[in-house]
Write a structure and sequence with these properties.
Blueprint lengths: L3 E8 L3 E8 L4 E8 L8 H16 L4 E5 L13 E2 L4 H6 L2 E3 L15 E3 L3 E4 L5 E4 L2 H11 L7 E6 L4 E7 L2 E8 L1 H11 L12 H13 L11 H7 L8 H20 L8 E6 L1 H12 L4 E6 H16 L1
Parallel strand pairs: 1-4, 4-7, 5-8, 10-13, 13-14
Antiparallel strand pairs: 1-2, 2-3, 6-7, 8-9, 10-11, 11-12
Helix pairs in contact: 3-9, 4-7, 5-7, 6-7, 7-8
């Protein structure tokens, strides 16, 4: 087995995942830590404490970090790279963090730590749009899925803020954002529309929500949301299934709305879904209702592949 060569880190708002990797990006060991929101003012000390024994064994290895660590809440602010953006442009725009004392022969220039920048664009609604962290997953997807590197392709990265990304010959052309996950959490936890335990997920109710959107795809989502309360009151839906029905309405509306926005020339019949497996599976079901094939990639796997790609380019 090849020895450790670098440290890969996905430092999001609520969670940090560090991986000790060989030169091919295989994770040899992993560590978890606090997210960027909790780490304010302590990024250097947190990183040092989590990597101290790795430093002792292997010396101060180079590190590549992505996510909110490069935001205004992070260790330093890495400016957004404007779209269209090629993988090499993203790697070249990484910002270095000095780590004293320097160790010789790291192979990545003077800074030990590099932070991957986010991406920006003027989206298809004429509004400014940004992403941070997802660019690394996209780099990983481009590495893992050869078809994404040729012609017009569409990727969807479901999450708190779902990203719909248009790719052209391996570069990120533009994207737009739907706060689907955030809206679900707000309505589930802070509205009267859904009142239930969140211990189980009612798949049948989710499918009913998808079907309801598919039957009337042009109906405004705002005019459907109250069904999450009225259907249980009318005994048409168990109260314990209301959040799953809400999820079906939101994800179904997200998928149908995104496809309406895209031109026929930029709507491939296969969509690459990148994210948490449980969430990409839900989006795959929604895509199936409109006859779209999907390919699912685990977000953690894609992120690690993207960080490895950046490390290789910087090396």
């Amino acid at each position: 087995m090849e020895g450790a060569r670098f440290i890969a880190g996905d430092w999001g708002t609520t969670h940090l995942r560090l991986s000790l990797c060989d030169g091919e990006g295989v994770a040899l060991e992993s560590r978890n830590g606090p997210g960027a929101a909790e780490a304010a003012g302590r990024f250097a000390s947190i990183f040092a404490s989590l990597t101290a024994d790795w430093d002792a064994r292997y010396g101060k290895l180079p590190a590549v970090l992505c996510g909110m660590v490069g935001s205004s809440l992070g260790w330093l602010q890495a400016p957004y790279v404007p779209c269209p953006a090629r993988p090499e442009q993203i790697a070249a725009a990484c910002l270095g963090i000095e780590d004293e004392p320097r160790s010789a022969g790291r192979g990545m220039g003077a800074p030990r730590i590099h932070v991957v920048p986010g991406l920006s664009c003027r989206n298809r609604f004429g509004a400014p749009d940004v992403l941070r962290g997802e660019e690394t997953q996209l780099l990983g997807a481009l590495t893992l899925v050869e078809e994404l590197r040729t012609g017009p392709q569409l990727a969807c990265l479901p999450g708190t803020h779902t990203k719909w990304v248009m790719l052209q010959d391996g570069q990120v052309r533009d994207f737009f954002t739907a706060p689907t996950g955030e809206l679900f959490a707000v309505l589930r936890d802070h509205s009267v529309l859904v009142r239930q335990s969140r211990e189980t997920f009612a798949t049948e109710a989710f499918e009913e929500g998808l079907a309801s959107v598919a039957e009337q795809p042009t109906t405004q989502l705002l005019h459907r949301l109250f069904e999450c309360r009225s259907r249980p009151l009318s005994n048409e839906l168990p109260a314990t299934s209301a959040s799953a029905y809400l999820s079906g309405l939101l994800i179904g509306s997200d998928v149908h709305g995104a496809l309406r926005v895209l031109s026929s020339a930029f709507a491939p019949r296969t969509i690459v879904l990148v994210g948490a497996p449980q969430l990409t599976q839900l989006y795959a079901r929604a895509c199936a209702t409109v006859g779209l094939d999907t390919r699912q990639l685990d977000g953690v796997t894609a992120s690690l592949a993207g960080l490895t790609q950046v490390y290789s380019r910087l090396s």
